[in-house]
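Ticket opened by: R.M.
Priority: normal
Category: complex prediction / small molecule

The reporter submitted a protein together with zinc ion and asked that the result be attached to this ticket for the collaborator who will pick it up next week. Submitted input follows.
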Amino acid sequence: MDALRQHLARIQDLRHAAAVLEWDQETHMPSGGAEGRAHQVATLRQVAHETFASDATASLIESASPETEVDADLVRIARRDLARATRLPAPLVGALAEASARAKTAWAEARQDSDWALFGPHLERIVDLTTQKADLLRPLIAEERGAGYAPSDADARYDALLDEYEPGASTTEIAAVFADLRSHLVPLVQDIAARGAVDDEPLYRYVPETIQWELGMEIAYAFGYDLERGRQDLSAHPFTTTFGIDDVRITTRVDPNFFPTALYGTLHEAGHALYEQGISKELARTPLADGTSLGIHESQSRLWENQVGRSRAFWRRHFPAFQSQIGSWMDLNADTVWRACNRVQPSLIRVEADEVTYHLHVLLRFTLERELIAGRLAVGDVPDAWNAGMETLLGIVPETDRDGCLQDIHWSLGALGYFPTYSLGTLMSGQLWDAMGRDLGDLDALVADGEYGAILGWLRENVHQWGRRKTATQILQDATGSGLDAGPWLAYIRDKVESVYG
Ligand code: ZN
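Result attached by the on-call engineer:
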C-alpha cells in the first residue's frame, strides 16, 4: 500500500503542478507566454499520463494489500482509472488533443464572425474521434454494469461519453428525467410569461467593480470559503481549480453595469471550492481527493448560488451591506432586488439563463449531441436543428449562430456528454437541500441568521468529506434516501416562482 500511495502521490503532484500553470495562463500570464506554456502543460500532463498508464501502476495495484476501508477504496479507484487510461491508444489520445487545440481556435474565430462553416469541419473531426473513443470504452462500461445493462447501440456509445463526467450515468435515464422536466417547465414558462414581467432594472445599475469584488468575497467567506487555503482572481471565464485540498482557487469576472455576473459567479465558484476544501485530509495526494462526479460538483455550486444566494432570506440578510456601499441602490429594498434576481424570461444564452429556463438550454444540447453521436444529424445541419429546438423549447430563435449554436466552448474541447451534468447537478441540489431541511429544520431561518456553518457542516458530512470514495448515486442514497429524482427541485422551483410571481 505504501509503495502504491507514493507512486500515486507523485502523479497527483504532476497533475497539480500542471493545474498551477493552467491557472496562471488564465489569470496572470502575458499573452506572449501562450506557446511556451502550451508545451509546459503538455509535457507535465504527458509525464503524468505515462507514469500512471504503466505496468508499474498495474503491478503496484495487484500487489497492494489494503488494510483499511480507505486503502480498499484507493485500490478500487486506481484500478478503475487505470482501465480507462490504458484502453485508449496513445495515437488516438494525441489526435484528440490536437484536434481540440485546433478546434478551440477555430471556434473562437467562428464565434467572433458568427460563421458556422469555419467551425463545422473541426466539429466533424471531433465527433469522429469521440465516436472512436466511445467505441473503445463501451466494452469496459458494459462489463462494469453487468448483465442487466442493455442499451441501444447509440445510447451505449453516448453512455461511454457520459461516463467520463458522470460515472455510472445512463442516457436512457437522463432522457427520461429531461422528458419529465420538459413536461413541467415548458408550460410553467408560458404561465410566467402570461403574468407579466418582473422589473429587473435594478440588476443593471452601476456598481463599482471593487465594491462588487469585496461584497462577493465577504459572502463567500461567510459561507465558509477558507481564504488561507484559497483566493480569487479575475479571468475571462470563471472557474475553480485545485492544487490540493489546501489550495483551492476561484476566479470571477466583473461587469460594472450588471452585478449578478460577479456576485453569482463568485458564489457559484465558491460552492465548487467549498466541496474541494472539504474533502477529508486523509485523502490528500491520492486520486480519491476529487469530486466524485461533475453532477455532484455542480450540485454544490448551484446550491450556494441558488438555494442560498437567490433566496429572499439571503437578500433580507445581506441587502443592508449592499445598500450601504452602493450609492445607486438608495431607493431599493431587499425584496425588489430579490425579485429582480429571480425573474424568469426565455433568453438565448445558457450561462445567463434563469433557474427555470436553464434546463431547456441543456436539453437542447443533450438532444443534438445524441443525434450527432448516433449519426442521425449531420454537423452542417446543426444550426437549423438548434434554431428549431430553441423555437420549440423556449419560443425564441437567435438571429445569429454566435448567439446560438456557437455560444459554448464545450464541443471544441471534445467534451461531448458534459452538458447533461449541469442539469443533473441542479436536480441533485434540489434533493440535497430538501434532505438538509429534514435534518436541520427551517433552512431559510438559518440563512436569515447567517448560520451558514450549519449548512456547510451538513454538506461536509454528507458530501464533501467523501471525495471519490462514494459514487454520486451512493451520496444521494445515503444523504437523501433516494437515487436521482427531479421531484424535490421541481417543488422548490414551483414554490419560488409562486413567491416571485404570485
Ligand atoms: Zn459550475
